[in-house]
Design a protein that fits this description.
Number of helices: 5
Oligomer: single chain
Low-confidence stretches: none
Shape: globular
Largest sheet: 6 strands, mixed
Structural class: alpha/beta
Strand order of the largest sheet: 3-2-1-6-9-11
Radius of gyration: 17 Å
Distance between the termini: 44 Å
Mean pLDDT: 91
């Protein structure tokens, strides 16, 4: 019989391991030069455009990059060039709730509001945009994150937005979309600590994969 409180101690150890790894990864990303980030982003953009899952997907959700993430601007332009539908996150602060709202064009990004987290997203009172799960669901989600391992485990920023959204996707008639993480090779880890609530990613794209 396990001693009482053992589960709580394990959960605390897991949280501490995640916190430590997040710190290490942030340090690695700070050390990554702008030119190198651009080089890897361009390479990954080409990998995405040639990817069979991307080519067959019609409804795609993708993040608008922060400075320490793979830059997605060229992928977004290609989504529209190929006549696909593009959805981007709107995060609700002080919660783990996120919606994926439809962009009308790549230029539409310039009309978005900048949040206190320095992320562009549709404003809270923007009710005209289609939410992906209120319509036809999604075929593919491109996932951000701080770190990943080769088993598909992902370390996010600790808010749980994407794990919670994927749970909602599973209840949609279309089911769970295919998930691809976009990572700098510096974000690939030997092992990422996970809980049972962490949803593994179907595929991780990085330079050496």
């Amino acid at each position: 019989m396990e001693p009482a409180g053992n589960g709580g101690a394990m959960a605390a150890a897991l949280r501490a391991a995640k916190r430590q790894l997040r710190g290490e990864l942030r340090q690695r990303l700070r050390a990554l030069g702008e030119a190198e980030k651009q080089r890897q982003s361009r390479l990954l953009g080409r990998k995405v455009i040639d990817h069979p899952k991307y080519q067959e997907s019609k409804r795609i959700a993708i993040f608008l990059s922060m400075p320490d993430e793979v830059q997605t601007e060229e992928i977004i332009k290609d989504i529209f060039k190929q006549g696909k539908e593009c959805f981007i996150p709107r995060y609700k602060p002080q919660s783990n709730h996120m919606d994926m709202l439809k962009l009308s064009s790549a230029e539409d990004i310039s009309s978005l509001a900048l949040t206190s987290w320095n992320i562009l997203q549709p404003s809270d009172d923007d009710s005209a945009r289609e939410e992906a799960l209120a319509g036809g669901g999604l075929d593919l989600i491109f996932m951000p994150g701080l770190g990943f391992d080769k088993k598909g485990n992902r370390l996010g920023r600790g808010k749980g937005y994407y794990d919670t959204y994927l749970e909602r996707c599973m209840k949609h008639p279309r089911g769970k979309p295919y998930t691809i993480a976009l990572a700098f090779r510096e974000q690939i880890c030997e092992s990422v600590p996970v809980t049972e609530n962490d949803v593994p990613i179907d595929e991780i794209l990085y330079e050496d994969c």
